[in-house]
Amino acid sequence: MKKTAAAKNVSEYIRARPQNVRAILEKFRKTIRKAAPGAEETISYRMPAIKFKGAIIAYFAAFQHHVGFFPPVPTAFRKEAGAYAGPKGNLKFPMDEPIPWNLVRRIIEYRVKEIAAKKAKN
Fold first, then answer.
1. Averaged pLDDT, 21-41
2. Residue 66 and residue 30: Cα distance in Å, rounded?
3. Angle of helix 19-35 relative to helix 101-121, nearest 10 degrees?
4. Which terminal residue of the chain, N or C, has fewer Cβ atoms less than 10 Å from its own Cβ?
5. Cis before residue 37, ω within 30 degrees of 0?
6. What is the 3-state secondary structure (H, E, C) of 21-86?
7. Is residue 36's pLDDT more than 80?
8. What is the pLDDT, as a whole number, of residue 81?
9. What whole-number distance in Å separates Cα of residue 104 and Cα of residue 28?
10. 55-62 β-sheet, strand order
11. Nearest-CA neighbor of 112 among 74, 62, 64?
């Protein structure tokens, strides 16, 4: 995928990608929104990021052959997510294979609970 100008928001980031990639990114966006009601979208490190109560839940980004998903993956999901494991605890979903949306949703729900519990202690 060729380099594009830095997006100002998530919609702009998605619109700048090819049509087939846009559909995948929109599905990430929809899945995350559903799993994290009230979360905010932003751009951080030149990619879409989702914040909940001020903390980043996850990033997602399109690369040439895969979509990167950067929670990093909680320990509870490492075995299940192993086939998609990237080098730093992130996940790499090939664009030409089905994405395990249920796994993505459950990771986001876990991260929301994790952040809410941490905020409740403070």
1. 96
2. 18
3. 40
4. C
5. no
6. HHHHHHHHHHHHHHHCCCCEEEEECCEEEEEECCEEEEEEEECCCEEEEECCCCHHHCCCCHHHEC
7. yes
8. 95
9. 8
10. 40-44, 47-52, 55-62, 66-70, 91-94
11. 74
